[in-house]
Write a structure and sequence with these properties.
The complex is a heterodimer. Chain A is built from 14 helices and no strands. In chain A, α6 crosses α8 and α8 packs across α9. Chain A is flat and about 65 Å long. Chain B is α+β, with helices and mostly antiparallel strands. Chain B has a single domain, classed as Histidine kinase-like ATPase, C-terminal domain (Heat Shock Protein 90, 2-Layer Sandwich), CATH 3.30.565. Helix content of chain B is 41%, strand content 33%. A five-stranded antiparallel β-sheet of chain B has the order 1-2-3-5-4, covered by helices on one side. In chain B, β2 and β3 form a beta hairpin. The chains are: A mainly alpha, B alpha+beta. Chains A and B meet through α6, α7, α8, α10 and α14 of A and α1, α2 and α3 of B.
Chain lengths: 249, 129
């Protein structure tokens, strides 16, 4: 859909000459991307034209900041910036979906129960065990689980916790309209996001995705339990999702 | 119980992701899976569903969950995707595997007659009630 060779030529010219023409052509070329991403937010009561305007601001930022020396396609780079701008727009308007207090508190208590029971049982507790410990129902615990991402990760809360809003899958972000994603691109983006993780988290991610080790093999290598590996992986993925979608990478 | 099957058909719209998440997490919970494993399955189902919504030409997405004492198998589809060049499809599939592989014990993508099926499996995992 987007001519990568032409894009590159435009960026080179723009960086050298800082001319409006190259920049405007880049904006025009990638307006479709803005429209596509803006449409992901269409269920929130804002006119689509306003959303496209906001998204275009993100596109312009991405065009100004894009480093052509990096081996990353522009769409891969621009998408989080555009999405980030759209999310900021809603947050600034105070439209972020608020999690009911009851669920916030329950989510907090579930986390506490997890810690206490894991310590006591030396394994990951079941939903029922957590429910009994807290004297709530299993459904309550599942509901808290549903809430917890929104509760912990501000940038995803509008997507994950609203009853009518679109979810934004990282798969779609990665796959949509960027037809020639290569493994190198994936790794470049991933490498950038890695700086948000602790050394141990980075190491686990590296072993899993770059060396292809199973969770059990990683556990053996790091001398921790498979459960700990699983938890670390899930947490790192959450952190990555948050940062990639929030436009910080 | 040797094996139970639960089938869920939802409109292929991202707003139904919560329905998918809640159903799958309840099924995993009913098998007695640990909190972590339930959450893994929840994330996997959610990612798979929104991915299909974005790519598929179908109006509905079918989930088929097979509940066994030691594992939950979730089959998504079959669904039709836009025809892409093989090279692109490989790249996207590789990345899809990259994400889902981390939360599932097994994740496969099968193509037959231009229809695709995702199958996610989660085992009970180490030490659970």
């Amino acid at each position: 859909m987007w001519d990568k060779v032409h894009t590159r030529a435009l960026f080179v010219r723009y960086r050298e000459n800082n001319d409006d023409e190259s920049r405007d052509e880049l904006i025009t070329m990638y307006l479709n991307l803005v429209k596509y991403l803006a449409s992901r937010f269409r269920n929130r009561g804002e006119p689509i034209d306003d959303l496209i305007q906001v998204g275009t601001i993100g596109l312009i930022k991405a065009i100004d900041r894009f480093d052509i020396g990096r081996e990353v396609e522009f769409t891969t780079y621009a998408t989080p910036t555009i999405v980030g701008e759209l999310k900021r727009h809603f947050r600034d308007k105070g439209w972020a979906i608020k999690v009911p207090r009851r669920l916030q508190e329950l989510s907090f208590r579930v986390n506490q129960a997890m810690d206490a029971l894991t310590q006591k049982l030396q394994r990951s507790p079941s939903i029922l065990e957590i429910a009994e410990y807290l004297e709530v129902t299993s459904e309550d615990v599942l509901e808290a689980m549903e809430t917890s991402e929104a509760y912990n990760f501000v940038s995803l809360e509008s997507d994950r916790n609203s009853d009518g809003a679109d979810s934004f899958s990282i798969l779609e972000y990665i796959g949509a309209d960027d037809q020639l994603l290569s493994v190198v691109d994936d790794r470049a983006t991933l490498a950038l996001a890695l700086r948000y993780l602790s050394p141990q988290e980075q190491h686990v991610l590296y072993l899993r995705f770059f060396r292809g080790l199973t969770q059990t093999e990683i556990a053996t290598q790091l001398d921790i339990s498979q459960m700990q590996v699983s938890r670390l992986l899930r947490k790192t993925l959450r952190v990555l999702r948050e940062h990639l979608v929030a436009g910080e990478v | 119980m040797l094996s139970d099957r639960v089938t869920l058909t939802v409109p292929a719209r991202a707003e139904f992701a919560k329905t998918v998440r809640m159903t799958v997490s309840e099924l995993a919970s009913r098998l007695g899976m640990s909190y972590d494993n339930v959450d893994d399955m929840r994330i996997a189902a959610d990612e798979a569903f929104v991915y299909v919504c974005g790519r598929a030409n179908d109006d509905e997405v079918v989930f088929q969950a097979d509940l066994k004492p030691d594992a939950l198998t979730l089959q998504v589809g079959p669904f039709s995707v836009d025809i892409m060049q093989d090279q692109d499809e490989d790249a996207v599939d590789r990345y899809a595997m990259f994400i889902l592989d981390s939360v599932c014990d097994s994740f496969t993508l099968e193509h037959e007659d231009e229809r695709t099926t995702l199958t996610l499996v989660k085992y009970q995992g180490d030490g659970c009630a």
